[in-house]
Amino acid sequence: MTEENIYSTPQQTYQKVERALDELISRIEKAATLISALRDENRTLTKQHAKDLETIQYLQKQLAEKEKEIERIQAGGSSGTQTGLPDGAVILTKEEREELEQRVNMLLARINAHL
Asked: What is the value of pTM for the model shown?
C-alpha cells in the first residue's frame, strides 16, 4: 500500500461518504417500494381470503341443508309437503351433490394455500 491509498484529503473523504449515503438512500427507496407492494398484495390476499371463507361457509350450509333433504326423502316421503321442503326447493342429484362437494373442497384448498 502506498501512502496515497492510506491517507485521503477531506474532499476525498467527503466524496466517499456522499457516495455511500447516496447508495444507502437508493437501497432504502427500493426497500420502501418493495414493502409497499407487499402490503398491497397482503391487503388483496386478506380480502380474497375473507370472501373465500364466506363462500365456503355458504356452500357448507347449502350442502348440509341438501343432505338433510336427501335423508328426509330417502326416509320415505316423496312430495314436498310430506318432506317439509319449501315450495320451489331444489333437490340435488348425486352428481350435483358431488360437484358441490368438490367446489367446497377446492375453495378450502385455496384458502389453505394462502395460510
From this structure: 0.48
Alpha carbon of 51 to those of 56, 76, 115: distances in Å? 9, 38, 14
Task: Retrieve residue 49's grid coordinates.
Answer: 381470503
- pLDDT for the residue 53: 92
Question: How much is the pLDDT for 80?
Answer: 46
Residue 37's CB is within 10 A of a number of other CB atoms, namely: 10
85, three cell numbers = 321442503
Which residue segment(s) compose the domain that 14 sits in? Answer: 8-114
Q: Please state the separation of Cα 106 from the chain's center in Å.
A: 13
Task: Assess if residue 1 is contained within a domain.
Answer: no
**Which residues of the chain register pLDDT less than 50?**
1-2, 79-81
Q: Which three cell numbers stand for residue 110?
A: 385455496
Contacts of 83 (CB under 8 A, 6+ apart): 69, 72, 73, 77
